[in-house]
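Methods: example folding runs. The two proteins below were folded one after another, and each record is reproduced exactly as written to the output file, sequence line first and structure-token line second.
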Amino acid sequence: MEKPTEYTLTWTVTDDMTAKRIGSAGSKIFSTPNMVALMEGAALELAKAYLDEGMTTVGAEVHVRHLSATPVGMQVSATARLRSIERRKMWFDIEVNDEKGKCGEGSHLRIMVSNAQIGAKAEAKLETEVK
């Protein structure tokens, strides 16, 4: 079976996703941090088709352009397209559209890691003394 090369994730913009919530000047519009989360979510879902048992991906790099405002109540979708896989690195190109057209774009790098490895590294940080 052929693996997918794109995945679209759609959210409806709520008050919790607005720029006002993160301190911007009273805007009732979809915030850039939430757009990044939507983009990462689409890439993560697409990446799952390429992972072996016990593996996951972690976000490592994001380049984003937020092109236009999306109001509360409108649907917004991110479509991730797999550009390449180089060893453990997965590169994605992502386009974001709301009901009126393109509102964002960017690229995203995810790194393939084992679930056990990422958990162990996080736990090790808790055990290390802060200098």
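Second run, written to the same file directly after the first:
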Amino acid sequence: MARFLYTKQMIRFLKRTYKDYSLAETTHLFNSKFSLNKTISQTKSTLSNHGITCGRTTGEINKGKSRLFTAEQHKWIEAQYKKHCLKDLTAIFNCTFNTSMTASQLRSFTRNHKIKSGRTGQFNPGQTAWNEGMKGWDAGGDSHKARFKKGHIPLNQKPVGSERIDTKDGYVMVKVADPNTWRLKHIVEWEKVNGEMPDDHVLWFIDNDRTNCDPNNLMLATKGQHAVANKLGLGNADAQSKETVKLLAQLSITAATRKRNNKVEI
């Protein structure tokens, strides 16, 4: 490839322009003047090869300015970023200014100069979604082969009556309805014999085994009795002491209630 030769007119232009403008601005003005597509690096090399200096102290002309973008380009980006996404903005920018900037360079420039697009990525009031009215949309191709048929039952769906252990509390859970309704097994078993469990009540496991859901191993207690028993440290009393614990808890509740009532009367 033949080496590009700068004319005397071009060199004079660079000498004169570089005194008042930054390297990026000089490159842009040079390309506009002579209908060329020189990069900033090429301009910098040419200036160095011909001993052309700006005569300014370091950073004087560039203070507060971008090294890659001219003031004109800065204003253009501020205006156009509100209309285009970064990818499109980069393509239009390069076409407009005959440059080869990357999307990353423009992203850095907008962030460093706090240039906002004004877009939040959220739906605005009254905005129509792109897929509105597309219920039943068909992607085409072989997509229909991967769809679930109506009434299809997933392979991992457990049948009604299946059981599992709650890993958090150790209770047995039983599936009572499809598609995914589970209940505590000990309550289900107790209700089969005694009917619906009253509100504000709990069931105690007489032998303290939470997996033993036999109705004969379950004792009904109020939530108040349950709370008092745990407060007294008797929540895990042995099977022979369960009735006594329940009685002690109720006596404690009754005594506390009488004490409060006496204070009110006084």
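Comment on the second run: The mean pLDDT is 86.
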